[in-house]
Design goal:
The complex is a heterodimer of chains A (291) and B (327). By secondary structure, chain A is an all-alpha fold. In chain A, 70% of the residues lie in helices and 0% in strands. Chain A is globular, with a radius of gyration of 24 Å. The two termini of chain A are 36 Å apart. Chain B folds into 2 domains: 2-72, no CATH class; 76-326, MetI-like (MetI-like fold). Helix content of chain B is 75%, strand content 1%. The chains are: A mainly alpha (291), B mainly alpha (327).
Chain lengths: 291, 327
């Protein structure tokens, strides 16, 4: 009897604590979503409005499509439509991530099977990721402007490719390490070259791992702010940079518009994150912690 | 696992022509991967670091002429930076912020993971909700925080209603609470990181020692302190070190929410470097600041890597013994 009773108490404590944190974790996200459906008088109201009443789509129509009939003059933002930034973000993030994962997987294969980088070198690679980018971003922008790469897609793709490479190498290596060598040896005996072995035997075997790596790095690149802010000005602004333009452009608080944009930036990211939720621990720990 | 980690036996006793061509092919293969890697990093990194060095020793701002004709000033800039009280405070603030948020994330994340590592009904839902903050773009976190934290905003309103008292800290305008506000935000944003790492750790440590202790009648508390915690040491250190490093680099939230203010109360190292370079346009001072910050970070990162290398071995040993046991 006492045992089942103590078990019930444990369960009550567990659900209480977890539910409290779930509310704390979800409330800001709920607030962002609900604000995006509020009319302008409820963005900044006192007492705060917890449920949009009546819910409106005008924020979305105004922000994403630039619908003028919905843009009350006071809150209209004179900037390009974020659809351009959405396109920029998509192209930059997917291209740089894809390059990083493919090249990273090849390096990882070399490290895993032929030790082309020593353990010390592998950690040096990691260092490139661990040093905050702010300490090199000023000379980088001067270097970029000298090369004509400032405010170009290629420039951003190049820098994201480099900064994501360490993650790609480490994460794919943890997947390749789990593949038994015998399969490749069989392929080699059958006369396949090393490159063929990599692309036709090893990489297909870790397909799901590669997808997880790709999506994981996509999340990081999609949300990156500092490099995008400095290295792009007007031509290739990404979504986070576009969002930050809403700050300081007007006197009034345009919370509803910001929230509509923020939802559009964040929701795809959450979906991607939830798809690879089982691999997030491995990703964030550079493949050192697995499930 | 053991096969994969053993060095490949390439050295044959007899060096036949075939062996030699084989080892040549292998070498070519190795260098065809190494070469582009080295080339890429040296083409981007070397000029950047040289430029950084140049600006640290030459006084230049965007208002002067061409940067390559800037005046050589020796170590004056470093003297200025190292005696700059604001920079000193920025370092202190960054370290405090990183430590505070790391500990906060870790304590909450570990507690949640501990409550969740044994399966129970509804755990999948909790897991999904708990990782959402981590999947929110940092700049979005900052703007959402602004919508939540203004003085008569929803956060103060909810807390006031729950406590039944008037709870009205001016999160966004009071210099005393601005830094704690960013720290809390960072904890909200990145607790999921500690949570998923600790959850993965807790569910992958071997079960046998825990079961043995249970049979011997040890209490949950003693099992936690004397069995689970020592086994988790590598995972714990990893979660702390990686989070600390990320927190030292935090920029988007601090910047978007406060731009260093109110006063200079949220000037962390990245924010101060950003202000100096892109608001005051003191490129040279910014470069010298960056150099000092970089040296500081290199020291910290080297220490961290030393630690990570040791713990990674412990982790690899744990996973390989697990797979062997499974075979």
């Amino acid at each position: 009897m006492t045992k089942s009773r103590s078990r019930r108490i444990t369960a009550i404590i567990r659900y209480t604590v977890l539910t409290i944190w779930a509310i704390v974790a979800f409330f800001p996200i709920y607030w962002m979503i609900s604000t995006s459906f509020k009319i302008d008088t409820q963005w900044f109201a006192w007492p705060p409005v917890y449920f949009p009443d009546p819910p409106t789509l005008s924020n979305y129509l105004n922000v994403w499509l630039g619908a003028q009939e919905y843009a009350s003059t006071q809150y209209a933002i004179s900037s390009q439509t974020p659809l351009v930034s959405l396109l920029n973000s998509t192209i930059i993030a997917t291209t740089s991530t894809l390059l990083a994962v493919v090249f990273g997987a090849v390096i990882a294969y070399g490290v895993s099977r032929y030790k082309i980088l020593s353990e010390a070198r592998m950690f040096q690679l990691l260092m490139l990721r661990m040093i905050p980018p702010i300490v090199v971003v000023a000379p980088l922008s001067l270097y970029y402007s000298a090369l004509g790469l400032l405010d170009t897609m290629f420039g951003l793709i190049l820098i994201y490719f480099l900064t994501n490479l360490p993650y790609a190498v480490w994460m794919t290596k943890s997947f390749i390490d789990e593949v038994p060598r015998e399969i490749e040896q069989a392929a080699e005996i059958l006369g396949a070259s090393r490159w063929r072995t990599i692309f036709e035997v090893v990489l297909p075997l870790i397909r799901s791992g590669l997808v997880a790596t790709f999506l994981f790095i996509l999340i990081l690149t999609w949300s990156e702010y500092l490099l995008a802010l400095i290295l792009s000005k007007t031509n290739v602004a990404t979504l986070p940079v576009e969002l930050s333009k809403y700050q300081g452009t007007t006197e009034g608080k345009v919370y509803g518009r910001q929230a509509a944009l923020a939802v559009g930036i964040t929701v795809p990211l959450m979906i991607v994150g939830l798809i690879i939720r089982k691999h997030l621990a491995r990703g964030f720990s550079f493949g050192m912690v697995r499930r | 696992m053991a096969v994969a980690t053993a060095p490949p036996a390439r050295v044959a006793p007899r060096h036949s022509a075939r062996e030699i061509s084989r080892s040549r092919a292998l070498n070519r293969f190795k260098w065809s991967i190494r070469a582009p890697l080295i080339l890429l990093f040296s083409l981007v990194l070397t000029p950047v670091l040289l430029l950084q060095l140049y600006f640290s020793f030459h006084e230049w701002t965007v208002y002067l002429g061409s940067w390559w004709e800037a005046e050589f000033v020796g170590i004056d800039l470093f003297k200025e930076v190292l005696t700059d009280e604001r920079f000193g405070w920025a370092i202190v603030r960054s370290l405090g912020f990183a430590m505070g948020s790391t500990i906060g994330c870790f304590v909450i994340g570990f507690a949640l993971a501990y409550l969740m590592y044994e399966p129970f009904r509804g755990s999948a839902i909790y897991y999904i909700i708990f990782i959402l903050p981590m999947l929110t773009v940092p700049i979005v976190v900052a703007y959402t925080a602004e919508m939540l934290l203004y003085q008569s905003g929803p956060v103060n309103d909810v807390i006031s209603r729950l406590l039944g008292v008037d709870f009205k800290p001016a999160w966004l305008t009071d210099p005393k609470v601005a830094m704690p506000a960013v720290t809390l935000l960072e904890i909200w944003n990145w607790t999921p990181f500690s949570f998923i790492i600790m959850l993965a750790g807790l569910s992958s440590i071997p079960r046998e020692p825990i079961e043995a202790a249970q049979i011997l009648g040890a209490s949950r508390w003693r099992i936690f302190w004397e069995v689970q915690l020592p086994l988790l040491r590598p995972v714990i250190l990893l979660a702390l070190v990686l989070r600390f490093l990320e927190a030292m680099a935090e920029f988007p939230k601090t910047w978007a929410l406060f731009q260093g203010g109110p006063g200079s109360s949220t000037e962390t190292i990245p924010v101060y470097i950003f202000l100096t370079t892109w608001q005051y346009f003191q490129i040279s001072k910014g470069a010298a600041l960056s150099y000092v910050a970089m040296i500081l970070m290199v020291v910290i990162v080297l220490l961290a890597i030393q630690l990570l290398r040791r713990e990674k071995r412990a982790l690899d040993a744990m996973y390989s013994s697990k797979t062997e046991a499974a075979d």
